[in-house]
Amino acid sequence: MAKKKNTSEFPKWNYAPAPESTSHIQLKDRYDLYIGGKWVKPLSKKYFKTINPANEKTLAQVAYANEKDVDKAVKAARKAYDEVWSKMEPSERAKYMYRIARLMQERAREFAVIESLDAGKVIRESRDVDVPLACNHFFYYAGWADKLEYAFPNRKVSPIGVAGQIIPWNFPLLMAAWKIAPALAAGNTVVLKPAETTPLTALKLAEVIHDAGLPDGVVNIVTGYGDTGAAIVNHPDVDKIAFTGSTNVGKIIQKAIAGTGKKATLELGGKSANIIMDDAPLDEAVEGIVNGIFFNQGHVCCAGSRLFVQEGVADKVIEKLKHRMDSLIVGDPLDKNTDIGAINSREQLGMIHKYIEIGRKEGATMYQSNCELPSSGYYCAPTLFTNVAQSSIIVQEEIFGPVLTIQTFRTTDEVIQKANNTPYGLAAGVWTDKGSRIFNVTTKLRAGVVWANTYNQFDPASPFGGYKESGFGREGGLHGLSAYVKQNEYGTVRSVENV
Amino acid sequence: MERLEVLKTYKIYIGGKFPRTESGRYYQPMNGNGNALGNICLSSRKDVRNAVVAARKAFGDWSGRAAFNRGQILYRIAEMLEARRGQFMDELQQQGSTRAKAEKEVNAAIDRLIYYAGWCDKYVQVLGSVNPVASSHFNFSVHEPMGVVGIFADADTSLIGFVSMMAPVIAGGNTCVAVASENLPLCAVTFSEVLNSSDVPGGVVNILTGKQSELVKPLTTHMDVNAVAYSGSKEVFTEIQQDSVLNLKRVMHFEQDWSQSNAQNLYLIEHFQEVKTTWHPIEDIGGATSTY
Q: How many structural domains are present in chain B?
């Protein structure tokens, strides 16, 4: 029904293809491990392929690091930590990091194209969001290196040691920057494992790091699957684990390091509420809903996947939203007109389809935009479900795809309670024109990031991270430093008894 | 004829009320001279659950109070403790302390409460930030309490460890379920009477006595507890860490002498805080943007 209405009232525009060129990028056929400042063949002797999810073509072969390879990387990181990086003047550390930021900026377009090829992410987003934010993250944290004593009142700080860092496939380069930059600024060395489906930009980052002349072993990149990550987590000489990924794996990691004294920060899943009050500017709110759930194909841990609309405006918002969804272009990630690119992997597409099926079986009403999907590659049309309940599986569990659930509410207290009724607590959004209502809601939402009259904004200066089962620790800003420093007291300790 | 002393019945403290344990059980910790301290409640997992329910119920009100008000209430706790110095000194001596040591411990506990009373309306200013983001947004980060915190008080002291672990937790707007030192439980029990007369809403601090080995599991596996503070052995802490994974409780292990001057600081409040970052756009008319 909606299809017919839209085609009659709003004629479909045809856009000429506007693909970003791939001619200037440099990709090797095969990537080894970056350990101790050198590209080394994996002791495992194994490689795996990374593909372009938009057309399933192989982009490169990538080394599959085993326990021995990880051990080698940790040893290189330890050596660099002991001998060079922890001893270097902090102002010199800063200059290396500034240099990395600049070299990344110079090659920004190459990074963006490779990111889109490897992750299925649309070029507009990798070019305008992922890559600039990644560069800026290094630039931001570079300046902290020689100013750490200002960040922690009444404390001296020192680095922790070797940081093992495991990152996901949704923002591959950005997550690498989020992990590496604060670690280096504070004087730690790093062993980083990118996700198996998106290793390429981390490997390109290794090239930049190499070109920047960063001392050997300060950053080591080991590629592989979950067992490679487990080898990092379980390595006795790793002092700190930083993980971004699913809540399930986060819990496994937290359990594995119990009793080891390893520090951890976990940035895990979410099922974030996006709340539309009846006085909200509805057109802006609809843009915010679209950005909240369809940004990066919905592969966003803080995606606004649970929409709450106040009853009085619910019909209108849903109608506007459907109309807006119909105008979204799903297709070639490299095309500059594309709004929604490819789902990251066959496995993830299967997961999304599984949840869509669950939603239908639960009796929810589904709407999918009437867009055309490419015939090859992994794609999913923007999807929304109405007639869902708090207890619906698709309302409770993270889908990590372009699937939105919509619920309605009457009062502010009601929606706060519904929004908080989740084991997660990563992010939330609220749309209203009334200032006092904004703060009533934002102070009561149990989430680490709250966007009022906006959604999915990120900045190196802005701390990011969750409450409850969305993990702990913050990344970004001053607060992101504390995960990478030991705090020590000034002066001598007095016994109260002797005062 | 000598007057017969009236003995005290030691109770637990849940939701502002003083029940005995629902289990009806008791234990008799001994002091150094081999004398039983009394029939102390041997709290059960059901007591833990009741205490968590009370703590959760109190959380909304307590975390929503003005920081200034929380500061006044913590100050009031110190006032009440000051007024009962003698009672606490007696109990400390009953549990093996010398008079001089007992007096110092009580003094330190009072001063510690005053210290945290003063932090209530300051830590957010010191720890928070306005973040200079590159886009046209007002962006700020503030600290918020984690929620319900489980506390296993220091085993080696009766009063100062308990107060030092509890005060920063409630100063930061959390509510708590605190398990008293197993062998030195008297001061924690009596402290509940101080709390009860100090304008502290019922349920903000709940105090249980009993066997740590029995209470660790129900408290650390409870799905409505947000964090756990533990002062004691590494082995038990490892178990706490593992159990806490269930709902990703934040866990803190303290290995410090709570009688030391450094056993009070801003970071003990921060350990039980979450950072919330809020964004709002700044109006942009004709490209004339502004930032913070």
A: 1
Closest residue of A to B250, CA-based?
A472
On whether residue B74 sits in a domain, the answer given is: yes
What share of chain B in percent tops pLDDT 70?
100
Grouped pLDDT means (10 residues each) for chain A, 499 residues:
48 84 95 98 98 98 98 98 98 98 98 98 98 98 97 93 98 98 98 98 98 98 98 98 97 96 96 98 98 97 98 98 96 97 98 98 96 94 98 97 98 98 98 97 98 98 98 97 90 46
Residues 94-153 of chain A with CB under 8 A from chain B are: 136, 153
Q: What architecture is domain A273-463?
A: 3-Layer(aba) Sandwich (3.40)
Closest among A289, A363, A496, A424 to B101, alpha carbons compared:
A496
Domain boundaries, chain A: 30-268+472-487, 273-463
Pick from B133, B250, B280: CB nearest A461: B133
ipTM over 0.85: yes
Q: Listing from the earlier edge strand, what are the strands of the sheet with B205-208?
A: B205-208, B175-179, B148-152, B227-231, B250-254
Rounded to whole angstroms, how far apart are CA atoms B78 and B101?
A: 19
Kindly give, in sequence order, each residue whose CB lies less than 8 Å from that of residue A381, ignoring residues fewer than 6 positions away: A330, A368, A369, A371, A373, A402
Q: Is A92 labeled as catalytic in the residue annotation?
A: no
Domain range enclosing B192 = 50-277
Q: Which residues of A touch B226 (CB under 8 A)?
A: 468
Q: Is B284 contained in some domain? A: no
A487 has a chain B CB within 8 A of its CB: yes
Read off the DSSP letter of residue A85. Answer: I
pLDDT digits (tens, 9 = 90+) for B245-262: 999 999 999 988 999 888
CATH of the domain at B154: 3.40.605.10
CB A131 within 8 A of CB A123: no
The answer to whether A448 contacts B275, with C-beta atoms less than 8 Å apart, is: yes
* Record: contact B279-A450, CB cut-off 8 A: yes
Q: Domain spanning A30-268+472-487: which CATH class is it, in words?
A: alpha beta
Chain B CB within 8 Å of residue A462 CB = yes
In three-state secondary structure terms, B281 is strand
- Pick the catalytic residue: A135, A301, A302, A380? A301
What residues of chain A lie within 8 A of the CB of B278, using their CB? Answer: 442, 449-452
Q: With contacts defined as CB-CB under 8 Å, which chain A residues touch B97?
A: none
A301 carries an active-site annotation? yes
